User: Fold these one by one.
Assistant:
Number 1:
Amino acid sequence: MTIKERPILEIKNLSVTFTAGRKPVRAVDGVDLSVARGEVVALLGESGSGKSVTLRTILRLHNERRTKMEGSLLVRGSDVLKMKTRELGDLRGRTVSMIFQEPMLAMDPVYSVGQQIIEVIRKHEPVSYEEARKRALHLFERVRIPSPERRLDAYPHEMSGGMRQRAMIALALACKPEILLADEPTTALDATVQVQILLLLRELQHELGLSVIFVTHDIGVAVEVADRIAVMYAGRIVEIGPVRSVIRTPRHPYTRGLLSTRGHGGRLSGKRLPAIPGSPPDLANLPPGCAFAPRCALADDRCRAQAPSPTTVDEGHVVRCLRTDATTQSLAAADVSA
Amino acid sequence: MLLADKQATLGPITRSPGYWTTVWRRFRRDPVAMFALLVILAIIVVAILAPYIAPQDPYKGMSLRRLKPPGTPGFILGTDELGRDMLSRLIYGARLSLFMGVTPVIFALVIGSVIGIVAGYVGGWLNTVLMRTIDVFFAFPSVLLAIALSGALGAGITNGLVSLTVVFVPPIARVAESVTTSVRTRDFVEAARASGASALTIIRVQVLGNVLGPIFVYAMSLIAVSMILASGLSFLGLGVKPPEPEWGLMLNTLRTAIYTQPLLCALPGLMIFVTSISFNLLTDGLRSAMDIKA
């Protein structure tokens, strides 16, 4: 065993509160997450669970005047939340970069794709225009865009969706970042293109030794790309662990609900798709106990009274639930019936 | 190897044309706009070459040949109330009229864009202060504001320019502000921030790149208005002073002859009409040519 390296990203007790509305909204509530060098972590959750907010906080993209960020967020040991504007400018795009959900909207329509990549390279590194262009061309080859020379001069609207996302990835990798943040990068794409992009991301991640945080609401995608899965609900990580462990033996009732709602190929048609009853809680108005308790079949009075603290159930597998005893039992039962 | 194969099947590598090349190609297909462009170019050329083209001295009058109708030998378009050659005065008048039409718009374009972009990008209380101040100017009808300012400052070319600039800053600032606000919240601005761009870089690259086109087109449409307003000021004796040849002023001085030589009196007005409508048509053509993604 090698000596354990310090994680490249350490998030400790991070809370993000939006104060714009009448009532402050706590979108992220006490998130702890560390990502090792070369590791892929998937943040899984439905809309409004705080996964995208967590991701954006890593680059501090929120409006500073209307957002309160607490806790600490260390990238290579330095706290992003305490950085000055200049340090932040160096961090963004260079150490940490981001891929967006909709490449059509995330690219500037009035500049060619090549120009945008060159602009980013020259912002961070003192290289000539020709040198930057050469690198952009190389990046295009790397993300396997056909006839890269010509595509470099294309405008975003002249490319297909998959091609645009490839260009977006090239843009994100322009300055050789160490951490890549992916905000649902395949959601806006066709199913066939989705797979291609996922494979490409996985391959590039492997070759470049990138650490990736991958936000998605698609369990299938998460399983495909991630080493570890973190399930978020109402601004908290309710379950985190290695992919295998979380998928095979989910301990949190919410994760189990998510897994059962997945339309498997093997599921009999004509059968009703199981759903989690109720809807996600209002973040400005959270229940005092476990946020999932009102929708949970296993919840008891304890769950409604006190918020569960993290419990380690397996090697690296941590759950925030007071009824892990019940979920473990029913797991065993499910194994028998299967 | 594989890549080379793919390129072979796609044929020779052709560069995709840039934005402005595409706009120009679309613009060329619009006959009305092209005609307007040619008219404007012709007027500009005539204005520049006025000393070489004008058949007579535009300032030299002679009481013996006052108010000759168009078609008089030696004076193709006749003579004005002081016996000066109409054609020469119209040619020289193009200089001042164009100048009075274009210059205030350029000044207003610079000032208004800065105000609008700052207000739109920074937002918050600064936006409120700047835009509500602009709204105060909006409360006045533009003609009235120009007349009031010129009247207060006194007649003359410089004062006319100043007052017209003040008139055009508010509308340009408002357009700039609304476009900037819509650009600011777009994903690519956040993407630019995520790639480490500073606020100034974003204003320079993302905001200006997306905002300048619409503002520019809007400002072009104001040139026609500016020309008419400038002529109006001159007509009222608040802009250019006699004996300078300027279309609006000529309209004013010739009005006394409206019953004896109606055709002659209409000529400067006709020039103002042709020029301003050409600018309008040109703007319309440019606007639809630039609307590529629609």
Note: The radius of gyration of chain B is 24 Å.
Number 2:
Amino acid sequence: MRKMLTSLGAMLAGIAMSISAAHADKLKVGFVYLTNPGDHGWTYAHEVGRQQLQDHFGSKIETTYVENVPEGPDAARVIRELVGQGNKVIFTTSFGYMEPTLKVAKENPDVMFDHITGYKRAGNMATGNIRFYEGRYVQGVVAGLTTKSNTIGYLGAFPIPEVIQGINAFARGLRSVNKDASIKVVWVNSWYDPVKESDAAKVLIAEGADVLAQHTDSPAMLQTAEKAGVKGFGQSSDMHDFAPKAQLFSSVNNWGPYYIAQVQKVLDGKWSTGDGPDHWAGNTWKGIGDDFLVLSEFKNMPASVAKKAEAARAGIASGTLNIFEGPMKDNQGNMVLEAGKVLDDGGLWGMNYYVEGVEGRIPN
Amino acid sequence: MFDELLLTVLLTSVPLILAATGELVVERSGVLNLGVEGMMLMGAVAAFGAASLSGSPYIGIVSGGLAGMAVAAVFALFVLGLATNQVATGLALTIFGTGLSGLIGAPLVGQAIDGLPSMTLPLLSDIPLIGAFFKLDIMAYLSILIVALTSLFLMRSRAGLILRSVGINHDSAHALGYNVLQVRFFAILFGGFMAGLGGAYLPLVLTPHWAEGMTAGRGWIALALVVFASWQPWRVTIGAVLFGGVTIMQLAGQARGWTIPAQFLSMMPYLATIVVLVTISGRGRNVFGAPAHLGKRFFMTR
């Protein structure tokens, strides 16, 4: 009996040692998620990226995540906890984590922080973002060729630069193929409120929209479109299963390559916040050309439309198609970009106007 | 266009009608249950889970109601059995229901189900302007029937009279030999069942998937509606449609380019709630028929 206990003790000690050894060897990487990875939207895309990261480095790293973290002061507590658990790289995956991340970054200079979609940086806090608007231009092209009523419904979460960019890029694509179509925008004032998103979609359909786009995170809009027999675009991840007859395609956020590149830099000892331009564009801001944004399969549209969508996608990827190239007018008829000029990244984040093709005004 | 908007308004008001009618009966018996939001969420998650597992939205309806009733039974155990403070217990029930529904629902996030089909009544649904009233689903039609039956029960039946008398003065009712606790127990269970049905309506009809906290404050609006309706069943229906109308109009207003800030419009339903509460409380007590012993604890005297 005693012998058994001794050997059991030795075994336990062995396990404990191997765990601590693993801890010492492995780089620990933490993620903070806004909702549940099962949302099939924003957070799901980050979770896919985390899994790619884990698969890529295998036993060299250990990743963990905390889900359903509210934006605001509570987030700082969660981020600190991740630091306390020994994570050396922490990705905070929503805009609202900007201030909490900055705060904890200043307290922990030996931990590397990576904030997604923000613009504030520190010596140990980098930012990464995707050129989401590029996918919306292609959506605009498809919408313009698909709509019969020439009315497009667009659900916005909040009137912030990222969303305005998306609406304007969509309008540029729309007007490039259909001069008569225009966009009606409805603000839901939430990133994730399925019932309200569904209500807004119903209202837009009642107002005559036959193609819907969204800058909110749940599949509720597409489900509503499916039921009403109209078309729409998915958000962040492929939402085909929610609306097999309604989804034209979805702009899929592909975070994996970014996570892998950042962690590789840490392992090589080359991580830095870089010398990226000091505005919203962030240290890393890439799109379709770098596979940061991937378009899901074009469906529920004739081959001729899919062909034009593919041409627009390829043009953006190769850089031959500039989405915001003059002449460009705002929806009040004022020239905002002269012929021959191309809007730079600073101009993209400074957009406080709707371009031609969008109805109404941006709420203050 | 008007037709479709009206239909959306009606659909939005159904969960409010269901939950508020249940709470109305509870309050008429003298109990204030602030846990409507929590019971609705439990109903929503149970309905979605059951519909997803069984493949039948009808099983979802029943499961939603039963789940609401189950948590209401816990509430009844506390406020009736242990005579705890009703306000505190009700708030605890909301927090509990929110958390538990999130926990149960975690594996359900991201799944899709076939929602409840709409039952379009032939001919009637073709009537211009009011045709929308006949393009609803089984739960919406039933909700109107339930309001009618509740009204009949409360105002025209002997059992309803006893329930109301318990709410007006539980000591007198007790002295007359009525079992106060039993009456209130059944009222609370009914309220829970109805809140569960109201919650079930969200994932079964409005948006066929589950999201944590998807009721988004509808339980509180249902509570306000009971006051708004001055404890009269039919007025609950009118109030619910008004609230639904404000919710939808703020969205439609944006689509039509009304230059009102979206945030202001989003605030409207809640502002309306406050205005109603202030207006009613300002007119002196009991003019509007609030049960006199609402929220008071009952101790058996002999």
Note: The CA atoms of residues 197 and 251 of chain A lie 18 Å apart.
